[in-house]
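re: ur question from earlier - yeah i can do the single chain one, its not a big deal. heres the input i used so u can compare w yours
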Amino acid sequence: MLPSPVSSNRRGTAQHLRTFSSSDLKRALNLLRARSRFTNLSIVILAGCFCVSFLYNLAFIFSSSSPSLVAYTSTQSILSTIARNATLESLSHLVIVPGHAIWTGTQPDQVLDVDRWTLEEYQRGGGSYRISAFVEHIRRGVEMTLQDDSSLLIFSGQVSDCGKYVRFSNPPSRGQTRLQSTTTEAESYMRLATSLGLFHPDSKRTPHEPHFPRATTETYALDSYQNFLFSLARFHEITGRYPTQVTIVGYEMKRRRFEELHRAALRFPIHRFEYIGIEPSSNEESGSARIGEVKNGYTPYKLDLYGCHDFLLAKRRARNPFLRFHSYHTSAPELRGLLEWCPDDAMLVYDGPLPWDNYE
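and the output i got, formated as tokens:
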């Protein structure tokens, strides 16, 4: 026989729960209304815990938005491959020559040969006047470096628009921004300077010129802003320090872009910066080039100081068909914040710490 079902007195149960809940509520209210007996020590301990928590959270918030200049040490696998030249560790003057085209020649008599240069279509008009300006930029940069024993010359650039070049029946090799080759503007400028014997003007030219240690290349810059910023980082790679003086040799028409925009964006001290402008010899072509500079250079950067939005960003992508990227986050860690700076407000100047903040 099955056991009889247990009857349930729902009314009694509900009444019991109501009684329990009412009693419990009264007890809780009495406890809350009772006078607390905090000691002074307890208050101090609670206040201290609150302050520590508050300060910790503030530190976390601000440390994530403002990078510090705490020294970063590369891994041993990297450091073991680096042996800096001790004579370069005291250098303080950075001379930058931004690249504008790629020289594909190897002999001095090929320097002014238009067919030995990778030029964009607009650069090929007017004969060799533009090429003469490129060569003069290189000459002047080398001359300045030879005159100052504390200087390091950096040829900077890999840029050319890979979508806009003139096709030849036997095309010369193209730069890293060209799909047909892996050379760069910076490397070609160094090769041209060496071919002309510019680093040893007083010695008899030989097929094997001795190495000049105070000249190097920066091969990742995709535009003029990066020519400046990346050369600062490359200087640190070579010397282990940042320059206290910067000189840039380039087109006169780009003076305002570098002085008013790029220098200001990097917050490099104006009294420690010099721009040397050299123009092509053709006045007519120089006029049209100046118009192009305002339209395609100065104005876009005035609206986008760091070149990381829309029009200027698209130009960088077009100039990087090999998907190359630099190592400066590791080799120049003090510039990490600046390297990553791309605010929604494209005209907002970077406000983090920089190595040259304390330059007098």
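Strands lie at 93-98, 102-103, 117-118, 151-156, 215-218, 245-250, 273-277. not sure if urs matches, ping me
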